[in-house]
Amino acid sequence: MTSTQPYLIRALYDWLTDNGLTPYLLVNADYNDEIAVPRQFVEEGKIILNVQENAVQGLTLDNDWISFRARFSGNQFSVFIPTPAVLAIYAKENGKGMFFKPEDFQDIDESNSATQASKAPRGKPVLKDAQALNIDEVAQSPRPPRGKPVLKRVK
C-alpha cells in the first residue's frame, strides 16, 4: 500500500491556493543526500519554502518527489525534495495545515526487506496548527506546546 503523505500534500496545496493562502513547506534539509535545497537558508536542519504559484516555476508534486525552480537571493536554484522529507505544509497567513510526525515514519510494505533500506520512510499525518508548534518538540511530545510560535520565515 502506498503512503498517504503525497496525496495529502497535493490536497492541502490545492485547498490553500483555492482559498488565496500562501502554501509553505517545512522540510527536513538533512533527510538524505538526494535532497537539493539552498543550504545557505537551512536553519537547524530545516528549511521553509514558499511554494505559491507565483514564487516557483515548474512545481511538480509527485508521489516520490517535490521539485521546482525558484530564485533565492536573486539566483535560480532547482529544488528536489523527497516527499518523506516534508515535515509540514501550512498557510503563511494563519498557520492552518498539516504536520507529519517524523517518529511515525515507517515502511508500509515490510515484506520486501531487501529493498526497504533504499526506500524512503513513510509517515502518518497529524493535523496541527503551525503557529502553535515548535518543530523540535513535535518529535518529542504527542501534545502541541503552548505559547508563542517559533517558526521562522526564510526568504
Descriptive notes:
By secondary structure, the chain is of the alpha+beta class. The protein has a single domain (about 5-140), classed as Roll (SH3 type barrels). It has three helices and eight strands, in the order αβββββββαβα. It has helices spanning about 5-20, 115, 135-140; strands at about 25-30, 45-50, 55-60, 65-70, 75-80, 85-90, 95-100, 125-130. The strands form two sheets. The chain has a five-stranded antiparallel beta sheet, covered by helices on one side. Strands 3-4-5 form a three-stranded antiparallel beta sheet. It is globular.
Question: What are the main properties of this structure?
Answer:
alpha+beta, SH3 type barrels, 5-stranded antiparallel β-sheet, 155 residues, 8 strands, 3-stranded antiparallel β-sheet
- How is the main sheet built? 5 strands, antiparallel
Task: Describe the oligomeric state of these chains in a short phrase.
Answer: single chain
CATH architecture: Roll
Structural class: alpha+beta
Our estimate of the beta-strand percent is 25-35%
List the strand order in the largest sheet.
Answer: 2-1-6-7-8
CATH topology: SH3 type barrels
CATH superfamily: SspB-like
Mean pLDDT: 76
Q: How many alpha or pi helices?
A: 3
Q: Total strand count, please?
A: 8
**N-to-C series of helices and strands:** HEEEEEEEHEH
How far apart are the termini? 37 Å
Helix share bin: 10-25%
CATH class membership: Mainly Beta
- Radius of gyration, taken over Cα atoms and rounded to an integer in Å: 15 Å
* Number of individual domains: 1
Anisotropy-based shape: globular
